[in-house]
Amino acid sequence: MIGIGVVGYGYWGPNLVRNLIEIPTAQLRWVCDLRTERLAGMRSRYPAVQITEDYEELLRDPKVDAVCIATPVATHFTMAMKALRAGKHVFVEKPIAANARDAERLVEEAERRGLVLAVDHTFIHTGAVRKMRELVGNSLGQLYYYDSVRINLGLFQHDVSVIWDLAVHDLAIMDYLLPERPVAVAATGMSHVPGEPENIAYLTLYFPSRLIAHVHVNWLAPVKVRRTLISGSERMIVYDDLEPSEKVKIYDKGITLTGSPARHGENIRQMLVGYRTGDMTAPQLDTTEALTRELKEFVSCIETGLVPTADGRAGLRVVRILEAATQSVNQRGAVIELQSEKVMA
Amino acid sequence: MIGIGVVGYGYWGPNLVRNLIEIPTAQLRWVCDLRTERLAGMRSRYPAVQITEDYEELLRDPKVDAVCIATPVATHFTMAMKALRAGKHVFVEKPIAANARDAERLVEEAERRGLVLAVDHTFIHTGAVRKMRELVGNSLGQLYYYDSVRINLGLFQHDVSVIWDLAVHDLAIMDYLLPERPVAVAATGMSHVPGEPENIAYLTLYFPSRLIAHVHVNWLAPVKVRRTLISGSERMIVYDDLEPSEKVKIYDKGITLTGSPARHGENIRQMLVGYRTGDMTAPQLDTTEALTRELKEFVSCIETGLVPTADGRAGLRVVRILEAATQSVNQRGAVIELQSEKVMA
Amino acid sequence: MIGIGVVGYGYWGPNLVRNLIEIPTAQLRWVCDLRTERLAGMRSRYPAVQITEDYEELLRDPKVDAVCIATPVATHFTMAMKALRAGKHVFVEKPIAANARDAERLVEEAERRGLVLAVDHTFIHTGAVRKMRELVGNSLGQLYYYDSVRINLGLFQHDVSVIWDLAVHDLAIMDYLLPERPVAVAATGMSHVPGEPENIAYLTLYFPSRLIAHVHVNWLAPVKVRRTLISGSERMIVYDDLEPSEKVKIYDKGITLTGSPARHGENIRQMLVGYRTGDMTAPQLDTTEALTRELKEFVSCIETGLVPTADGRAGLRVVRILEAATQSVNQRGAVIELQSEKVMA
Amino acid sequence: MIGIGVVGYGYWGPNLVRNLIEIPTAQLRWVCDLRTERLAGMRSRYPAVQITEDYEELLRDPKVDAVCIATPVATHFTMAMKALRAGKHVFVEKPIAANARDAERLVEEAERRGLVLAVDHTFIHTGAVRKMRELVGNSLGQLYYYDSVRINLGLFQHDVSVIWDLAVHDLAIMDYLLPERPVAVAATGMSHVPGEPENIAYLTLYFPSRLIAHVHVNWLAPVKVRRTLISGSERMIVYDDLEPSEKVKIYDKGITLTGSPARHGENIRQMLVGYRTGDMTAPQLDTTEALTRELKEFVSCIETGLVPTADGRAGLRVVRILEAATQSVNQRGAVIELQSEKVMA
After folding, report:
1. What is the pLDDT of residue D79?
2. Which of the other chains make 3 or more beta carbon contacts under 8 angstroms with chain C?
3. What's the pTM?
4. What does the pLDDT read at residue D263?
5. What is the ipTM of this complex?
6. A240 to chain D nearest CA, in Å?
7. What is the dihedral of CA C99, C103, C105, C106, to 10 degrees?
8. pLDDT > 90? residue A269
9. Can you tell me the distance from the alpha carbon of D98 to that of D71, in angstroms, rounded to the nearest whole number?
10. Which domains does chain A have, with CATH numbers?
11. I need a labelling partner for A79 at 20 to 30 A (CA). Which of A135, A253, A300, B292 fits?
């Protein structure tokens, strides 16, 4: 039985609690939040769970093996580092930290102590993204591009830009799906409210191969769109997260390079590019709630010592891109090379 | 009665002919194409129109006042310059020329001779774009962004990239719609077929104000999309050219900056950004064929001396951006400043 | 302060409880359900509310002014009649009773005792349906037809057919929206599972005027559809309940009868029917939860003596049509005349 | 080489001509129309084809083997009978005749003379309907229902109701697709323009099995819909003719009857109905123009003596249902039994 404490009971914390309560091998022992009025409902619904305003109290409980952190991004590093130093395994909301240096220090601390450090890249645990993972690197053929649009009339954040708020999802999905790591990023963004962070941004990621990735994120769009195109040499995917059931559509479409250059003379190139089109299939998807899978995996990793799908290093890689993208926006779209993956000693 | 010759009877030429035949104040006198087999159908359908392989023959006819050019892009300059030098008014397919220097020379020649030089920016004559022109600069408020996606599994071109093939439409529309001229462009693109031009590209346009424009063009997409978002401080537009009738949707949505900073203390910014949402309207659009309007306007400009909506200078501005975008792609997305609008003497 | 008891805490009961708790002028005193395990969560969440398995206990409480009934349809009559006889106002789930005779008796009892009898026709309290009510009888012109499709791969019911399960919603909406009452109904249906009630059905309603109404309900459809067309001589409505925000679209479209018969000779009729097409508007809708509005209205009617929007007579009218439709299905679509509205003495 | 004459050069005739010209084994010899101004374009485009106002002249030509009839419905019988009596094979627009008695006489005449009589049920030659034919009777399992909606703001016809204009397509498709023939029909309809035929109608078809078919046709709808649901015990189809490429979607969905009645006691039925859901597939469809296939088949049948897919008897079956549906509308939806298939002697 893994003892668990949750810190942060705002927007996402209740989802963690609801799921942790249902995991047979876990025992939710504490929920901590500074705003005690939020915890009122907790007490009557889950009388066996202790509540506190004092994070240290939670950390002092020797029966707490792991901490799930759902506090604002700016506090992720402090909260997670305290937990690791208290010998607790850590599950932290995305992004794992507010900058790459902090993320590196968390990774180092967890690895040095042999603790599980997981980041909540929720989307990679959905049936849709897991199905796409099966396809990428298999029937899709050589990858050509990843193009995502994630826009709506959304809540303006005041502490982070639309890149840290929305593009983080695409970066997490790409980190999980794609067989290559990006080598550089360029981003442009604009703030339309004076004094606020960017509310619209475009990111381009460069890879070692001819793969190119692009993300459009926007808090100021008249319609909600959550659509990703992933194109390979053999098949193409449209992933529409707003579709109620057919979220992933696989198109048996592509180009074919055919013909003998020698035979076609002047029209050589025109003959070489053909089109191929076949069936479209929307496979049935696992509808298990992503967070359920994710938390079960976290608990299981603590028990077995295995590495979670989205570990601290995945969290770090995503934050490095977010940081580089922000730098690029500030330099009017300059291409920023991404560091290699190693964690500094 | 304006005498007209058409040169180029491939994909677009027949549309020019079909429309010119119906204009009461115009007389289609010649159609010229090197591939005479294409002209066979012409002769029986329009016995009054002369056909020739020899462009010079057409230009020598003193009753030809104007020439409509629908030949490949690489030949636009030569064809148009010959016509201008023969004293003919010119209507030329988009893009007006294959590079900015050639476009400038056409503009200079036409202006020096007092001849009408029009470029076929077809979309700006559609009911949809003309309706949007009424809105932009009026009820839309201050412009925030123009975002366009123009993708499908399309015919690969071998002489021009997807930017020159598809983004040209968005640049023409923006040139017509927007109250500002872009000051810089950045573009990234990728070719997935060795030896071929880019088949996917992303363009970003910078403006003097906070307006930002972005265009995604792609010949290798599993689905066809023709969707543009135009957002202003007061209203937002979704323009979907694939919708059979409701192509333009106007959303009475936006953000509102409210509240008194002094009163809200720490939450000052959180209080200031609110949302406003109202009705959506899809106005009825004029369904006149764009090319019909366009050719009538060209003939009318010859008669009256007025300047066409898309004159040579509009064509030049678009080609300058295409050229700068190509340069940016070759420099991995570097921002390229756009020249001021003046034509060199 | 109106004291209220809720009976039935299965699928819908918790929604009643959640809403009643928030009404300042109501006091939820009791929740009653035979399956006490369902009430476990109730006790901790709402400690001030008493729970019981014994409906009589609830009815004996003199501080209970009104009872909300969310038990299976077959029990509506008994539950409601007991409450009325105990002098309580009643709010009962749709359909108000399992047959017209029982519905009549409830109406009579409530009217004789001067008690409020309301039926939970939820949809008529949505922003979408209330907006349509504003349009019907005004800008829509003379009504031509009401056509509704309400289909999905849905849970088969075992005690009632798809007509009583799904068509009841359309009948309730029509009862609220339309200026006329139907005079006859014809219905066909089919059961594809031996021994089960009909899982697909088509209803046609006849009205005194040329208005015609038709409803397609289906538990065995591959896609979910909730779409109603309402057409008038001046405007037409598409009401799509699955649209996230633009649920009601108003089309300024129709036919026009023009021309002078005398002048057109043989083509007289061909000249008379023309088409008119204008803007489409999707008005902003009130997004208040329907059940919130409905329960507040019920409490207010108890206080003021006013009649609720969906009173017992509305519930009775709907049940009469359901009963006639069932009879028609059993007679292979025979047209069944509907009784006049009077309640038998 | 089969010599062919076309009579009727209005809306559909030009399509016949355009296709016949391209068939290598056919020779289009004549086009006949009373309105000679329509034939003007014909002469210049197809100089080898003779034109006439005199149908008898066409019939007298011994080199004419077959006649294609695209005149108004009211004239189909006379035109076709004359051609048959002149010993010509006949291809006639749908519906084959204006009433069942006339259709029978055409069938009898053609069969007695051993001539090919084909009816232009265009849709059954589309890739979409032919793909569905492969599925019906195979992977779909036992058929449950056919439900079609065919509505738009369409041209009012003055000589025929919306049933004869639009439902004829669904009846032709069903005649081709379904393994059973309907035994009865009921229909309701309404005219909203005084003196005009019905502009909205609903048809229900009864079959020997539990299969049920329903068609909604409407000239007065604010949106265009062309959508058919075909549900079987194993799979379900959505056929949307307005989809540009994915017209046929096959859903691996259905209900499953499971469990042992003996074991479940009271809940016997509740346990027996379960749901099954799997992949959705949109198969690639043959995009050959339907009319091309159809006319080639007609010519081939003349050469080989084979029976066309839609022969005179198919045309007759459809007209019998149209006639019965009209009768039902006039009797306020009364169920009309359909005659057995035999042609009277």
Report:
1. 98
2. A, B, D
3. 0.92
4. 43
5. 0.92
6. 15
7. 140
8. no
9. 12
10. 2-122+290-310 (3.40.50.720), 124-287+323-337 (3.30.360.10)
11. A300
